[in-house]
Fold SGS domain-containing protein.
Amino acid sequence: MSIRHEYYENDERTTISIFDRGADPEQVSLKFEPRKVTYTHGDKTLVLEPLKGQINPDACDYTVGKVKVEVRLSKVAQGRWGGLIGDSPDPLANSASTSTPTPARSQKKNWDALTTDILSAEKEKSMEEDPNVGGDSAVNPFFQKLFADADDDTKRAMMKSYSESGGTTLSTNWEEVSKGRVEVKPPEGQEWKKWS
């Protein structure tokens, strides 16, 4: 009987999920060998051999859950296998089993360079995509065009509302501004300065 299983790996270990719902921890048996793993539960058996790389049987372990059995294989040599089983040549097959491997030097990531690369790769947005692009430098041409294309009353309303509000209000309706209908007030938290 074939048992469904999946795996994932990193450089140090391979983790296998064996989907055996309701497995009794007392009846589950796992045997670890350098290039072979054997799982037994009652009449169910799963044999994985030859493994793509060597494992350290003494450092392997497993846990039995309600839905699956998770098996953790400790790799003798760091690196990705790219598969679980297969006849790929094992670089450690001819080495003495008692020798301890020297861990590969892992290079540290240069996070600053990575951030710079990502930010420089981002496309600058245009005014059509995001009206807030450029801040004041992008808004000023808009108001200059609005003012240039306006009639005399609209220009007068814009100047008066802007200057009386200290730059917080801009109205284009001269009828309201000339009669004081537009509320002109200083920015929040500030007071009018009295000129002498």
